[in-house]
Write a structure and sequence with these properties.
mainly beta, 381 residues, four-stranded mixed sheet, single chain, 2 domains, four-stranded antiparallel sheet, Immunoglobulin-like
């Protein structure tokens, strides 16, 4: 059977009070540099909000479930790494200090493992109300069984703030005034994030899991065959303190481990900037001979509709939505597409994220040599 291209999720337990954590960041950065777009990294700040304001209910619950007693600690796809770290009561945890980079070893193993599912993310964002809407779709290209769940994180990059955001630090080349790019400092040193003098940017901070702690159950059945798709939609109004332009959505599909009452192995992950969408190629390109635009499903729709496009060869293509007067109201994609099947999602909103009225709309696929159209009816409840 086919296998979906895999992306690996690295989750680091960290905190402003953790003096070894800035040094540990470099191990993750090294892995991201080596494997580029196939690695997703997020930071779970733990302890309590009076010490670290980036701590939240989700990260505390995750910390307690995995019995994290020291930081920095890392999980790579929440897989069992006993072969790397030896026997442990929590074999998902890998120490992230210095010396040999075990995170890279684990990442390499995961990237060579097959995955039965790819993940699409369709997100929209209203800047005036700070309302986010996200739909995560799991596309199965092979069979799978068990308690499989969908999770959806909102993540903020480059977080700074006042004194409570200052980062403790125990190693490196010393505190150097005016060097905002330095990741290494020596003890004793507090790395300020107040935007005066040196600046430490907290990377990829997990703000909230829109799903329950270990994912939304019941969306994906206990036994799945190839060719099935399962979607879950989430919505959230963000606090005004979160910076819109630095927000992204990280979604993943994983098992739930009933014996330990915590998350199990992650089957695949995906990320996209908030307000944008990403699709995975899930069909063998060699089986596609012509450009095609399938009928939207469902149609009519009230919340979200799926739009499937097939491309036989790499070329520039756009998928846009028009009203009956011929006005372009939404752009789902306008870029070079690789060969294969691509799925896009439309939630009935316009380019600015505002809800459009009920009625008939036109979906138009435009490639370098062809134009195809389908109609769809928006009928909100």
């Amino acid at each position: 059977m086919a296998q979906a291209p895999r992306k690996v999720l690295i989750e680091e337990f960290t905190g402003t009070w953790c003096g070894y954590c800035p040094l540990g960041i470099t191990n993750i950065d090294q892995v991201k540099a080596t494997y580029s777009s196939t690695v997703i990294a997020v930071a779970d700040h733990v302890y309590n909000t009076s010490v670290d304001p980036m701590t939240n209910n989700f990260t505390v619950a995750l910390n307690n479930a995995y019995q994290v007693t020291s930081t920095p600690q890392v999980m790579v796809d929440r897989a069992d790494w006993s072969s790397i770290i030896g026997a442990s009561s929590t074999p998902q945890l890998i120490g992230n200090y210095s010396g040999h980079n075990y995170i890279e070893d684990a990442t390499s193993q995961r990237l060579n493992a097959s995955s039965p599912v790819s993940i699409d993310i369709a997100s929209s964002y209203n800047t005036s109300t700070k309302s986010a809407s996200v739909t995560v779709t799991a596309n199965f290209v092979d069979t799978a069984s068990g308690d499989i769940r969908i999770s959806c994180l909102l993540v903020e990059d480059k977080v700074t703030g006042g004194a409570s955001y200052d980062q403790h630090n125990y190693g490196g080349n010393g505190c150097r005034a005016g060097d905002a790019s330095s990741e290494f400092y020596s003890y004793p040193c507090l790395i300020p994030t107040s935007l005066t003098g040196q600046v430490f940017y907290h990377k990829d901070v997990v703000r909230i899991n829109l799903a329950p702690t270990f994912g939304t159950a019941g969306v994906i059945p206990s036994s799945v065959t190839a060719g099935l798709h399962f979607s879950k939609s989430y919505s959230y109004t963000m606090p005004t303190t979160w910076k819109d332009s630095n927000m992204k959505v990280v979604a993943f599909v994983s098992y739930y481990n009933t014996s330990t009452a915590r998350g199990g192995e992650i089957l695949n992950a995906q990320e996209v900037a908030l307000g944008q969408s990403v699709t995975a190629v899930i069909e063998n390109p060699s089986a596609i001979n012509t450009v095609s635009l399938d009928a939207a499903y469902p149609n009519p729709f009230s919340q979200i509709t799926n739009i499937k496009v097939k491309i036989p060869a790499t070329q520039h293509a756009s998928v846009k939505i028009y009203d009956l007067l011929g006005h372009e109201v939404a752009v789902l994609t306008d870029e070079n597409l690789s060969p294969g099947e691509h799925i896009y999602y439309w939630n009935g909103n316009d380019k600015e994220g505002s809800a459009l009225g009920n009625g008939l709309y036109l979906i138009r696929l435009q490639t370098e040599n062809q134009s195809l159209s389908k109609s769809v009816v928006l009928s909100r409840n």
